[in-house]
Every structure is written in structure tokens, then in C-alpha cells.
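Protocol step 4 of 5: obtain the predicted structure for the target chain.
Materials: sequence only (see below). No template structures provided, no constraints applied. The aim of this step is simply to have a reference model before the mutagenesis design in step 5. Sequence pasted as it appears in the construct record:
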Amino acid sequence: MNTQKYFFLVPRLYNAGGVANYYQVVKPHLNNDIQYIYRGKKEIEKHSWLRFINDYFSFIKTIWKAPLKNLVVINTSLGQGSIFRDGFYAWLCPGSAKKIIFFRGWDPDFQQKIDNSEFLKKWVMKTFLTADHIIVLSSKFKEKLIQWGYKKEISIETTLVDENLVKDFDIAQKGNNTKNLLFLSAVTKSKGIMEALEAFQILATRKSELIFHIAGDGAAMPEIKSEIELKKTQRVNLLGYVTGNKKAEVFQTADLFIFPSYHEGMPNAVLEAMAFGLPVITTRVGGLPDFFEDGKMGLFLDNRDPEHIAEKIQYLLDRPELMKQI
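Step 4 output (C-alpha cells):
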């Protein structure tokens, strides 16, 4: 009789975000030995400190009641908040459990803080680097963990595209338009949305047929709306958060995907855009440099200056045959 259980510490699946989406997609493919333990904001919640206490208590209760041969996968990011929040989960795991840490995001600025802080370095060593196995989304992340002293196995993985998203998509039906630019992600400054909008504003003065579709929601949305209103920018389509058939429709009608993000693990949105045959203009962040071929899958940005982004977009728009080939 197999007494082993596999526990995955994951965000609540109705939350918007790449990790929640990932585990929503894989859940139907997992067997009964695998159990999700949820953490994060509930739909109706007034006291965040109570949520943390409840989440930790639920985690302890579930893990310590399980068979001794259990395995725990903790999804986290290398960033200011998650390094402490999820470090406690790693610390709370019983010594008898096998522990896997899956770094889904990685903030290079916070990495620098760890390099410069003995306290942070010790915290990482005593929590995450006690894992039996670590999974990352980029070879650079692996190199840094080894530099910090991790001796066990590190796997480089990727995220995924939901097969249901592309099940009705036929690339042969794509038209020859080059007018629909798309940004689809959390609408936050760290995703480069402000620079993407400014780049469109530059191009819109030259190409009156261009349309910029922004799909998603987030903290930068009020500023986006103010910027559009202030500069009286035309042909910006704010779609809000999209999912399911609407999300598929947004990708199908787009011609070019713009994603000048500041830091990532492996951005689902880029993989989804590629699955829909879109040329991608993006930055060298996270795991993208490990597989993304400049000129073949789209174009890498050298910086996030809006003029530079506009130049890269213009370069592809002027070469419809290259866009078709991509």
C-alpha cells in the first residue's frame, strides 16, 4: 500500500496570476495522491494578518497529519514579500518530508539585496536552501543558487499553455493584418505597460490604422487611463481581465505581442502569444533567453525606452513577410 502523499502549496485558484493559472490547468491531469494546499487572499477578506495565521495553521495541520513519507512542493518567488511568507512554509515542513522549492518568479533587484545582506543570505540558506530539490525557470537562477551554496539537484523547467485555449485555433486562418498590437498581462509597471503605451503613442502619430489592445487589470490601470485621457490617445482598447474564450479571441485577433517586462520567471503570456503564432517583442528576462530566438520568434529589446520599443515594432510592421514567417 502506497502511503506517500504529494502536497502542492499553491495560490487559491480563482486568483488571477500565472501560478494559479498553471495549477488550474494541470489539476485535471493529477492523480488522487496529490493534494493542493491553498494560501493567499480569499474572496471576502478584511484582515490580512488573520489570513496568514489561518494559512500557516492549515498548512501545519495538513502536513503533520499526513503519512511520514510525504512530499511537499512550495511555489514561491524570489522577492521582498514572498521570501519571508514562503520561507516560513519551508521552515514549517517536518524533517521527514521531502521538500521541493519551485521558484516561479525572480526579482533581480532583490537578488542583489540578498547578495549584499548577511541576514537575507542566512534566511535563504535556513529556509529555501534546505530543500531536497529546487526547480527554477532560468539557467541564470540556477547559477545564482549554486553560487549561494546550494549543493543538491536543480531542475530548469518551464510553464505551460492550456491546450483548451488553442483547441479551436487554426493558424492558416490568420489574416495578413499588421494593425493590432497586444499587451496581455497583469497591468503593473513592472510588466512595462507604461513604456508599451508610450511606444504606441509614438507610432500612432505615424500609422493611423494601429490599434493597441490592453488585456488585464492591475495597479497601473488608473495611471494608464489618466495617460490616455491626458494625451487624448485614440485607438487604445482596454479589455480588462480576460479568460477562456475571450482570451483566445484576443490572441487570435492580435498581430503582434508587446511585453517589455522588468523581471519574470517564465511568462505564460509570451508562451501563449507564441502558441497563437504572434511575433513577440520582449525583454531578456527570466527564462526567455534560454529558448527565445531573436529574429525567429520575434525581437528582443535592448532597453525599455519607448522610442526603442517603437523602433522594434516599426521594424516588424515594415516587414510583413518576416512577421508571416515568424
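Step 4 remarks: The two ends are 51 Å apart (CA to CA). The mean pLDDT is 91.
Proceed to step 5.
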